[in-house]
Amino acid sequence: MSTTSPAQTTRLLPRAAPADAGISAAGIGDFLDAVEDRGIELHSLMVVHGGAVAAEGWWAPYAPERPHLLYSLSKSFTSTAAGFAIAEGLFSLDDRVVDLLPAHVPDDVDPAVASLTVHHVLSMSTGHTADTLGTAYDLEPGDLVRGFLRQPPQDQVGSRHVYNNSCTYVVATLVQELGGTHLTDYLRPRLFEPLGITPGHWDDDGHGRAIGFSGLHLTTEAIAAFGQLLLADGRWNGEQVLPEGWVARATRSHVRTDSDPATNVDWAQGYGYQFWMGRHGFRGDGAYGQFCVVVPESDLVLATTSVTDDMQGILDAAWDHLLPAVGTADADPAAGDRLAERLASLALPVVGADPGAAPTAPMGPVSPVTFVVPDGEGPGPLPAGTRVQVAPADDGWQASFTFDGGTVRIDGAPSVWVETEVTAAVGHDRNPTRGRSREATTVLARGGWRADGTFEADVLLAEMPHRFRLRGAGGVATAAWNAVPLAGERFEAHLP
């Protein structure tokens, strides 16, 4: 059993106190208040002004050195790879997809599909009226590009924007097939190494290719550094890293998005090349609040990871509080110290013993206790029939999850998050799930026995926004996600 102990991560950006960076500490605190008041759960935050990090924080057990799933913020990195590929002459914006990827083209390709260019897939202006990814999987599970090219658009090509994950997959495939390497390896010498970023895992399609539209794992500082690079028009430490002119081309509106719901006003400002335009600046964003927000006119970058359905709430709080904080001096000289103390003490809410009640025993029962997920249990992390055995172990407990003939064991404790690296489900030979392929998954767990004899713990996927609360009582186990992972609701779907 090993508890988490975050180490100092490599710093990619300089640090400055808010006052020295030219931004109000109180304003940053007001941003945090506004997010909290809306019930938004942040996992990390970086505020960069004038090229320096003025505020940073992680809600434990999330930590500076640990990569976090970006979801669709990954798209902006795929776009950047396309920018390099275009500059290097691998393809152009006006090239037709069918000409660049002939091996994927169906014999009876529709003329409208045949007219699609790199510009159309980068801007998601293919004329389709809905995301085509699910249908592409159904039509051609082994060739998603071909599955996409089998779907004629309902409207005129270039006439409308619809958020379409297949488009990004096509862009990723273009770079990987014409560039001759995995997307991560293509970006490594061009983007990641110049910025000092060590990239994490990028989920693949089961055939060794990064999916492009999601799946990239990066640290919060890597997100912030990417934002600062975009803010500086692709320059880093005096060197032109991104192709000259690419930032301006990728981060301007190429297609209207004002048909989106009015309540999501920042999604109605237009779409670039895998970047969203906003009321202020532009951004890459991913499901549940993975943000890289760039506001050039305010010299501001905001990087967040989180789990929330209220993504607009994060942006509203930024516009209401961070923008007015730029260039504003704090009247109270202690504001900076208060903000620093607050950022240093951030933590997720966790389960615990009944207030004021003594536990039945310091570590719970001295013998293993088994719970079973009952038949009829609805969708969730654990399918019906899953056996969960909780046994005392050292300073905490070990939970064994048995499903489909395989067993996964994780460690936990009542007062600290405990880390387990799961490398395989014992006795269970599973193929990788769709869109995932990795050697290990890190799981964090915290919780324990309550005074009434109930076992209750949070189980967190360390590089994702997601955790589920496990409860065992009367021989029955139940579990529920804080937010359902997009790659699958079953816990075992996220294990190697």
Automatic annotation (TrEMBL):
Gene3D superfamilies named among the record's database cross-references: DD-peptidase/beta-lactamase superfamily
Pfam families: Beta-lactamase
Beta-lactamase-related domain location: 39-308
GO molecular function, a single term: hydrolase activity
Protein's UniProt keywords contain Hydrolase: yes
Keywords linked to the UniProt accession: Hydrolase
Signal peptide segment: none
UniProt name for this protein: Class C beta-lactamase-related serine hydrolase
Species whose genome carries this gene: Occultella glacieicola
